[in-house]
Write a structure and sequence with these properties.
By secondary structure, the chain is α+β, with helices and mostly antiparallel strands. It is built from 18 helices and 37 strands.
Length: 688
Amino acid sequence: MKRIAIIGLGVSGSYLLNRLSRDHEVVGYERQKEGQFQAVCLVPETQIITSRGVIPISEVRAGDLVLTHKGRLRKVIQTFSRYYSGTLVKVTPKYTNLPIRLTPEHPIRVTRSHFFKSPHPYEWISVGEIADPDQVKMCVPGIAKDQEVKPVISPRLIGYYLAEGYSGPDETYFYFAKEGEEDLVDDTVNLLKQEGFKCHVEHRETSCAVVTYSLKLANILRQFGSKAYEKHIPFDYVNLSQGSIVELLRGLFRGDGCRTKDGIALTTSSITLAVQVQLLLRRFGIFVSVRQDRIAGGDTSVINGRLLLRMHTSFRVDVNGRINELLESFGEDALTQYSWSHADWISRTNNFLIPIRKYESEEYNGLVYNLEVEEDNSYQTIVGCLHNCAWGTSKHELTKIMKPLGIDFQKYILFNGKAMQVDLGNGKSRSIPLKGLVTYDKHQLEVDLTKGKKARFGVKATPTMLKDENYDMIIDCTGLHRAFLPKIKNDMWVPCVEYKVNYSDGKTPFEDFFIRPFNQLSGYFWYFPLEKGSAYVGAGDFKKEQNEFVDAFNAKNPGQIERKIGRPIRISPPKYCEPFYIGNVVGCGESIGTVFPLLGEGIIPSLQCSQLLCENLDNLPAYRKAVLKKFEYFNYVYDIINLKLQGKFSMMKQLPLMLKVYREMKKMEDRFGMEIRLNDFKTIFNSY
């Protein structure tokens, strides 16, 4: 048994951690650089907005409906938990004292734009990448309107019940102060009579109660919770008419609200109710703050003359700003004409822009959680939107590689391609039939590969740091960086940029895979479909013109940019990336050049390289020999690209070289996920 350290937990590093842990003592280290999402997770108590209330992420189950960054409910496909030891980022937005604590690479939805700039470019960035919290604002969406629903009874009566009510087996109580709330008592009595329920008023020492004995009413109101800390509003009530929402909030704020120096406030022991009030007001373009008020602990307080013993933590909802009309009437006109004094709260694109008040880090040891959500791949906490990512590959090869590890690759597939269009320029194109080319959730595959293994995320491993750990072997899976291996002389790499774009109207630029090679084959533009209505749009170019091309495409085909990734990719083949090993350090994957130079695709080659390392773990010279043989055809492709870039390529002179590449690729059609046809080869190379 060997003691092994794996540096870098991308796909190949995660694969090695999973496979080698079966027979060896293995620890994985991941520094979580941009574009890597291996441990995107949150602490167990993180509150998630679901259709059944606001609940800790540890209690969310597959099948639950969660609120996404598009302001709509979508199903949780799968939940994940893992042990995490490392650094957490603690973000506390302005206007609340409720932080979120998450791993540094977890994507969070923000904008870097000034409020008055329009439109706002929203993006998903790893929270650990926020260099200056003062320069970003967290983005919280408005609520997408669905089919209008009608309340089961008077919405104002529901509001009174949420504030002051209790429901027993067949009786319902509405409690009010003995003095000062006589008008609320009368209003409740009248509303009950209008709904056809008999009631009476019981006067007590410090309070009075409107009591009605009706099994029907008790059953209706129990759906809103019985006890104060259980109170909630059914999620579909966000689709009440504006008039009904106003009536419900009028009853709630009259019963449990109070005036403050700057506006009005509501205090409740139900965090679900507090957040749901916030959701209802988003329908009017109003963002209100929710903060923890008092901790449970048995202290007492006096509300409207009533002495109360605090048994549960309370939460406060504050509605601030210029709201004189709102205070006077809480009427529909006042809400729809509402104007804020806080310009940084609301944008012109139905998103609320929340500045970050505190940005801290802390050490953590324990379980962390994540969710896989259908379509939108995101979920809302009570203070922000988080993301749960995709890549292109051949499903046949990945299925074969993952099967021995007990992982079913099929469940990670997001889009199955049928034909890839290749733009040949001058209005011409070529359609290449696909044989298993898919986009898939790379991040989730990495998470599952490392689940239950010894992985230290948020740790930048260095030779000095590991010097005293006495590892028998250190595997460098750090890609372009080769952090533990000597730098490569005359290294060749291509800068790339990629955007995840959502086309909200459903009108995507292409229905399937699309690429456009650049002149001299210096790189290419790609469009990889993801879930319905979204895609990865990107380009890599040796001449460094990738940004201009992608920006022009996005301007012509506007969509909502949800994430941007930028990093170079090594295209020097293994032949030019030696040494593969030195001392007790051995390289694997992109760190030793296993990226197909023509396409810049390194996932499958790096996994194949990982397999070779596992098979030759005790014989590194044999490993070197196996890698050079396996990827020998990369040399031919690399030579053709160099000739193209130098303007020295001739189809006649280089035909033998071209045929070598074609024959190798033809033998591996399933590995490439497409039909390899000689005519396509010749046409593309002649066109560019």
